[in-house]
Amino acid sequence: VPSIVYGILGLAIFVRTLSHLTSGAVFGIEGSNGRTILSAGLTMALLILPILIINAQEAIRAVPSSLRQASYGLGATRWQTIWHHVLPNALPGILTGTILAISRALGETAPLILVGASSLINKDPTGVFSFFTALPIQIYNWTARPQPEFRNIAAAAILVLLVVLLSLNSVAIVLRNRLSKRGT
Which PROSITE patterns match (predicted)? Predict the structure, then answer.
């Protein structure tokens, strides 16, 4: 599903329908309209949820049925089999999928633009009901300015984003390899 669809879904649900919750009005916070960090976070959670579910299902399916049958043969209940044998063996795949889903969310901009990411933030956020922006949006804004200083800032931000994404992917690979070796 294209990420823009998740942005439209987040706009419809979190910004429009649940604006009294995501704006903080229920908690007595004024000056917000539902286009907050909370609504953006919930939208990004919707974006990565299918990835997490599919990766968890595949990791659990990858556990050999002989392991389950051996556990049942030794008298373990279904819950004991899942908790002590299936989940520990599926953990490398689940963690790898989680880290890769977070990596995808870091690079997404389209859902955040629809939910209400600002192009200019002139004060620090004070909580989940504050206005927000995203690093890819800031990079675009900095490269669109004519001053050369902003191009240098944009280049540094691009490097930061690349380093974070490569680090997360590297951690996912190392974690998967270490946990896979431990399980065998």
Answer: ABC_TM1 (PS50928)
